[in-house]
Amino acid sequence: MDVPERDEAYFKALVERDRKGLEGSGGTLNLLTFRVEFEDERRPAVARQLDSAEALAATKADAFVLPEGCHYRIRVDFRVDDAPVSGVLYTSSHYRKGLRVGRDKQMLGSFPKQGMPHSVTFPRHGWEEAPSGMLNRGSYTAKAELHDDEGKGLAEFEYAFDIRTA
Hints:
10 strands; single chain; five-stranded antiparallel β-sheet
């Protein structure tokens, strides 16, 4: 699966598809999120494509499993289309049984248009620790959003994860 993700023709097809989808709405799209990867230090990374409505729905419905107390990080790959994007802010809200249990915000900075995609890892340095204990086990959903410095939504996606015993 690594070959199509790095292929320039593949990225051009994604950009063209998104432009065609926006023609009727009169909007402009500057940031294209196309891949998210969940990495656990004990196991290989789980990658999910975000390049279609079906893929977005599958990412939300198909939960990945985190062992309780493990160290993990999330990598988001995206491409900037047309003009550079300044002041990108990443916001991730975590929900369990419909109630928000956590929220993370991180300023990412500015990103120019370039041939290869940008890749950002959360947290930037080190690993995040998954909660542990009986009360923290279960199913979670998360909503990730990328905004610019003017508050304009650039991209958003939802994903699901389960915290289970190791």
